[in-house]
Amino acid sequence: MEDDPGIRVISAADAAWHDVQAVFGTRGDPSSCWCQYFKMDNAEWKTASRETCEPLLERQVQELDTPPGLIAYLGSEPVGWCAVEPRTNYPRLSRGKVVQASTEPTDDPTVWAVTCFVVRVGFRKRGIATALLAAAAGHARAHGARVLEGYPVDPVARDKVSSADLYYGVVSQFAANGFTEVARPTPSRALMRLELAT
Fold this sequence. Notes:
globular, transferase, Acyl_CoA_acyltransferase, GNAT_dom, GNAT family N-acetyltransferase, acyltransferase activity, transferring groups other than amino-acyl groups
């Protein structure tokens, strides 16, 4: 299906909190993670729940100088989320095999990462994640990013891909937004990079 021209993307800091809650929902992985997995160590994550993670994201949205993500709307309906921040804000991320293939310094705050997409059931296959990714590049560039990385899944390289596996995004979506594949650490996961003019 073609991208819906009614998609609008804004900073999570400019969205009503109940709109963010509507996107993360009450079932499935997003409703328990609230984009905290890459920010917690193993011990913290083992005891994490919606009750601990949702307030953390709310505080990050309200207090960080650069909000940790974007919200997509279809008309007035909140329908999607994209997490995009300096890669240094994601301590667990640097331990992953895909990210370790990056040649960018691990402590460089001008290297940003797109780590997660959430699109509500009933609104998928309308170009929402692609619109979020395009907006994420603009958001990162506006806040001083030099490079934006993504770690998407390649569904073509897997026999079966569940919707839960797609929270990283897909290779074709990143390619359509101008990202270049720079490494393929596993057959079905790519490291993709977009150079941002500053």
